[in-house]
Amino acid sequence: MRTLLIIECGVLGLVVGSFLNVVIYRVPRHQSLLRPRSRCTSCEQRIRDRDNIPVLSWLLLKGRCRNCQARISPRYPLVEFATGALFVGSAAQLGANWALPADLVFLASVFALALIDAEHLVLPRTIIYTALVGVSAFLLLAAAIYGEWHRFLLAVICAASWFALFFVINLLSPRSLGFGDVRLAPLLGLVLGWLGIRYVLLGFFLSNLIGALIGIGLIATKRIDRNHPVPYGVFLAMGSTLTLFAGTELLRPFQHIL
User: For the chain, what is the domain count?
Assistant: First the structure.
């Protein structure tokens, strides 16, 4: 049963990853997600359904458009594969748990947001708000089924607290923290708060640690200077995702303290 769930989530992740490619390209450009249908960026020919199978089509076409032979970026199959891997990992970790759909929505959303932020230095509110509604609905359903209303209440409190903290930071220093990060904060607080306060603290710590290490590395290699804007949303996504998958193990040495 668990193996079947993992396989199903893996296939779902590949499909969702294919859709995320559309989201990542079109949302920052304020384009419709529905029209026009996916086309080759070189010859503008509509991509056939048989050439739109996640990962497999790119491999069969050897990374080239069937019509004009233009190169297709490997980013597309990588996004599809990575989303599938995230879904498999979540299913393997949670199993048949009603909180699983919330985690899948969260993982897909923050993955897309991280890639958009890395490229455009923006966190689209449409993705954040859609994810927040979806995650809230699924966690509410899980709380109702399992009678774990205290977990849902704690998650809401953590979401509000993280929002308040980020709002104050943005108010005091808008240059150090964009408002897109403020909007993202409740989503992170909600998901990690469902696991417990210590997971929220760990997620915040890991996000800043990862950001500091990457920032120092980029400055040391002269890729950027100290005044260069950094995509903090990327670090928030990485820290929260790492906490979601490895938080229990990372917190184990501190279980008598936290």
Answer: 2
pLDDT over 90, % of the chain: 66
Query: 251 is in which domain, residue-wise?
Result: 98-258
Residues 29 and 154 in one domain: no
| Residues 20, 24, 29: CA angle, nearest 5 degrees | 140
The long-range contacts involving 67-74, CB below 8 angstroms and separated by at least 24 positions, are 67/40, 67/43, 68/40, 68/42, 68/43, 70/40, 70/41, 70/42, 70/43, 72/40
* 143 and 188 together in one domain: yes
**Cβ partners under 8 Å of residue 239, min gap 6:** 203, 204, 205, 206, 207, 208, 209, 210, 211
Do 137 and 194 lie in a common domain?
A: yes
The residue from 96, 115, 141 where one domain ends is: 96
Q: Are residues 58 and 110 in the same domain?
A: no
Count of alpha carbons within 13 angstroms of residue 256, beta-carbon side: 1
Phi, psi of 126 (to 5 degrees): -60, -40
Residue 217: predicted pLDDT: 82
The CA distances from residue 116 to 7, 126, 141, 227, 231, in Å, are: 28, 13, 30, 21, 9
Q: What is the pLDDT of residue 69?
A: 80
pTM of the predicted structure, to 2 decimals: 0.92
Burial of 78 (0-12, 13-18, 19+ CB in 10 A): middle
